Amino acid sequence: AFLLLPILSGISWSLPDDFSFLGFALINFIAIALLFRKALQQFIQEKRFQTLPRWTSIIIVTGIVLAINFGTLLFISESVGFFSPHFSQVLERQENSFDLGELSGFSILRISTILLAGAVIVPLYEEFLFRGLVLKAYERAKSPLFASMVTAIIFASFHHSLMRLLAFIPSFFLVAVAVQRKRSWWLAVVA
Description:
The protein is mostly helical. It has ten helices and no strands. It has helices at 5-13, 17-35, 37-45, 47-50, 55-83, 85-95, 108-141, 144-157, 162-182, 186-190. The protein is globular, with a radius of gyration of 18 Å. The model has no long low-confidence stretch (mean pLDDT 80).
């Protein structure tokens, strides 16, 4: 399965534009399920997987995560701009590289597949890897607090930007702690 991943990934990006991101997300989802089959089977048996979060927990955690992310991004951008206007302009260009006007040429089908992949499939396999496997492994090896901090740093580092890395660490830490306290992995998927 591991050797087929680059081939399958290449095939997914050769699909028509409406399906390329969805194909890529599905291939990653399937590859992770195959590569970590035994761990996935064990994870499905755990209480964290079987416990659904309360709506109040979802709303509270999501609200706090959004507030932390926006607040931290604003603080970082203002602080960096105060000390180095040039660096602030570079960060601003990087963060504004996606223009919503680009969506005007997308079909409803393409937007739907991007939403399905980005809001459902990708969060499932990301959270399985980070809150399912990595968090659990570090909890066993060290402590819940250490596990929350390490998974927050590792997970944030996968989000392609120094500014996002710094902004996401506190919120990803909060999500890891919420998963531990509420004993529900689904809270991380939904939040």
